[in-house]
Amino acid sequence: MIEHIVALLMFIGPDIKEHRIQIDPDTGKPSMSVCLKHKREATRVPAPNVQYKCIKSKAELEKNIDGSYSIKALILE
Length: 77
What we know:
Blueprint: E1 2-12, E2 15-21, H1 32-43, E3 50-63, E4 69-75
Antiparallel strand pairs: 1-2, 1-3, 3-4
């Protein structure tokens, strides 16, 4: 399924190593403010060559066994 999402990406060097969908727990909708909050928390622990970015994008999602969704592929336009 393809949806519009807000995701927090972790880059190590030029590669995306981790990505997480950021959803507001109150509304259940994608939230840039939640993403920026998690980005601030992640950057408190400095690590060499690690960068974090929040993006709004389309993504192909897959449903996990527990009912949550994970990013299968980002669709960057």
